[in-house]
Amino acid sequence: MIGYYVHHQGQGHCSRAAAVAAHIGSDVVALTSASLDDPAFAEVVRLDRDDADAHPVDVDVHGLLHWAPRHDAGLRNRMARLAAFVAERRPKAVVVDVSVEVTLFLHLLGVPVVVTAMPGDRDDPPHQLAYRAADAILAPWPEDLYRPAWLEEHRHKTTFTGGISRFDGRPPVSHPSFAADLLVLTGAGGDQRSPHPASRLAEDLPDLNVVTLGPAFGTWVDDPWPFLCSSRLTVISAGQGSVADAATAGRPAVVIPEDRPFAEQRTTAATLARAELALVASTWPTPERWRAIVDSIGDRAPEWDRWHTHGAAERAAWAVESVAHR
């Protein structure tokens, strides 16, 4: 059996974990504080949240870690649950997506760990400690487009999988009932309390068919795949899951990176801009600019195959199983 720790922020970690778990031959048990229910997992072990304290103290242990608030009951309970899981179930390996603290804790319990890397500025001591401790590293992007210097030390144990999408392997589904001039996909990460700029887009562009899908802003749909395939232009953030999904659909995209720790989305957006795979905007365009962008779309499809989404989840699963079967 293989464990899979899944971070609770946003939906991307959950989607990626489920995509990889579906290709692992052993039973996979999810360990998470997120709301996760997917047939790819044989079981889901619920962990307490460790961020409920309104006034956390000494969260980074004087710069040694990222998040380990002192005297936090949620942190204490989740670590105790992880220890009990290891003692009782004896996993062959655990994938960590993502947490420096969980990576180190599992290793101290004697469990092989596969760490998922994230783009951005990850040369800080906590990240580097986790990468050194890892038995293997998954980098869910194409190596030829993004090879950060901070990962060079660990390249011998890194698998550059390409973008991991939950839609890989699904045939395109294009239909007029799902078509839109502008399809805006809003994620579940970041500050959900602020109004999303897409909320006025349909009003500002009444002559265009604007569709907004998302868990907090827009309409929620369980399966956005036919919308992705049918849209004239897709608008996404620069999250790893959003980019991989857009690449799998192969449609033109506008990428607007959101502020994230360690410049994660800004780095991915810069990679996409250099490769000319998508139009990248640093800020939300004006209605006039949106109209010009839509008018400029030609018939030529972007070279999204360079993001290497096809088979990415299988490549990640192979790396995980290689560690588990050593």
Can you summarize this structure?
This protein is α/β, with parallel strands linked by helices.
Description:
The chain has 326 residues and is of the alpha/beta class. 30% of the residues lie in helices and 14% in strands. The longest helix is centred in the first third of the chain and has 17 residues, at 73-89. The model has no long low-confidence stretch (mean pLDDT 95). Helix 1 (12-21) crosses helix 10 and helix 3 (100-108) packs parallel to helix 4 (125-133). 44% of the residues are buried. A seven-stranded parallel sheet has the order 3-2-1-4-5-6-7, with helices on both faces.
Keywords:
single chain; 326 residues; alpha/beta; 7-stranded parallel sheet; 5-stranded parallel sheet; 10 helices; 12 strands; 30% helix; globular
